[in-house]
Amino acid sequence: MSTAPGAGAVGAPQAPGDLPRAVATAPGGVVVLAAEDLGAALGARATVVQFSSTFCTPCRRTRLVVEHALRSEPGVVHVELDVADHLALGERLDVTSTPTVLVLDVRGRVRRRAAGVPTLAQVRAALADATA
User: Fold this and answer.
1) Which of 7, 37, 59, 69 could be cross-linked to 52 through a Cys-Cys bond (beta carbons 3.0 to 4.6 Å apart)?
2) Which residues have C-beta within 8 Å of that of residue 13, sequence separation ≥ 6?
3) pTM of the predicted model, to two decimals?
4) Tens digit of pLDDT for each residue in 49-90?
5) Which InterPro entries match (predicted)?
6) 132 near 28, Cβ under 8 Å?
7) 47 beta partners
8) Tell me, what's the pLDDT at 33?
């Protein structure tokens, strides 16, 4: 999976096939999102945030992959946001293409981030990292 050009919150992949780990985007910390940012409650174990757009075919495939991964992950919430309806948040997170997927831990910290359609294995690995 490729990362979005210019995405400041993207680190190098940890292993082949992994979603990149998020790195500090502000002095002293990683990006943290709250329920108020997303308009939805965070998951009890993790949250997958997907930025999509109306006519984005890869976004539909991403939704299917994420939903499939979450079938066996209780306490994990999938929040899909239309980037056109969340411009300020998209700018804050430097979302430059859709789909962009963020995996948050229980505290709302961005643990992984990637642009493009992830594989099922990549989503599962990112969730394992976020819930560890």
Assistant:
1) 59
2) 19, 20
3) 0.80
4) 999 999 999 999 999 999 999 999 999 999 999 999 999 999
5) Thioredoxin-like_sf, Thioredoxin_domain
6) no
7) 77, 104
8) 94
CA distances from 1 to 4, 18, 23, 83, 117 (A): 10, 8, 17, 20, 7
DSSP state of 66: H
The parent domain of residue 73 ranges over: 35-130
Q: How far apart are CA 38 and CA 49, in angstroms?
A: 8
Q: How are beta strands 46-52 and 76-82 bridged, if at all?
A: parallel
Q: What is the CATH number of the domain that holds 84?
A: 3.40.30.10
What's the rounded Cα separation, in Å, for the pair 31 and 8?
11
Residue 22 belongs to some domain of the structure: no
C-alpha 102/C-alpha 76 separation (Å) is 13
> Residue 131: CB partners within 8 Å, gap ≥ 6?
45, 46, 73, 76, 105, 106
**CA torsion angle 12 16 19 22 (round to 10):** -30
